[in-house]
Design a protein that fits this description.
Layout lengths: L4 E8 L28 E4 L13 H8 L9 H15 L4 E8 L5 E10 L2 E11 L4 E9 L2 E9 L7 E12 L2 E13 L3 H7 L3 E2 L5 H12 L5 H8 L6
Parallel strand pairs: 1-2
Antiparallel strand pairs: 1-3, 3-4, 4-5, 5-6, 6-7, 7-8, 8-9, 9-10
Length: 238
């Protein structure tokens, strides 16, 4: 059986994108078969959170604007960009955090929700597998529906070079309309800038439905942690 513990900590203000750490696993959407397990327990944090006034992620804003050339002129893509910019600029979002652990140290997940009037506008999911491999997802919602997802693999590779991979998914009325991939390899102190300048190449959207399912689970908050645990935690041997 899989056991997961969930910690809920509420706070105010915008949250920065979760920092990445070194890893040897490329970004991919978690999937596969997993066994059922009892619902995760949720406990409120004891410390009283203080209001935060973190600035929008300027790097993420700039990267998002460099969409693939094929997206130019598509009014649906432009509308997604506008909504994305609104969410990034909104400093009044309420922030809460959830943590989940798989049994046997086989991985964990961290979730940060950004809400307005009880509705999730943005969510960040850190999927951390055993050995600190994994990736970070940023989900953006409009009216309860996923409109954009950004997936960054944790840095990996052998020194002195580091490889970064980023995938983007654009959705319209529940269906993917554009999926892109970009990557960069270079010195650890320069690879972030190299990734920012790298072109977004259109790719097939075969992973888009799985990404949307993850976004749906995460948006449920504590109520979705049991589903998320089944999706991310490896199935124990029989």
């Amino acid at each position: 059986m899989i056991f997961a513990g969930v910690l809920l900590a509420a706070g105010c203000g915008r949250g920065d994108r979760a920092p990445a750490s070194s890893s040897s696993r490329a970004a991919e959407v978690p999937g596969g078969e997993h066994s059922a397990s009892p619902p995760a327990a949720t406990t409120p944090a004891t410390a009283q959170p203080a209001p935060q006034t973190a600035a929008p992620d300027a790097a993420a804003d700039a990267e998002h604007q460099s969409a693939a050339p094929e997206a130019s002129g598509d009014p649906r893509i432009e509308e997604i960009r506008k909504k994305y910019a609104e969410i990034q600029a909104d400093k009044g979002l309420q922030t809460s955090e959830l943590r989940m652990e798989c049994s046997g140290g086989e991985g964990r997940a961290e979730v940060r929700l950004h809400q307005k009037n009880g509705a999730v506008s943005k969510a960040v999911l850190k999927d951390i597998a055993a050995g600190d491999a994994g990736s970070t997802y940023q989900f953006y919602y409009d009216g309860g529906r996923l409109i954009f997802a950004l997936n960054d693999a944790f840095p990996f590779g052998e020194p002195p070079k580091t490889l970064l991979v980023q995938r983007r998914y654009y959705y319209h009325q529940g269906s993917p309309i554009l999926c892109t991939r970009k990557s960069a390899e270079g010195p650890s102190d320069k690879v972030d800038s190299m990734l920012h300048q790298a072109p977004n190449e259109p790719v097939d959207c075969s992973f888009a439905p799985k990404v949307e399912r993850l976004a749906s689970m995460v948006a449920k908050g504590a109520a979705g942690m049991d589903e998320l645990k089944k999706q991310l935690c490896p199935r124990p041997p029989r």
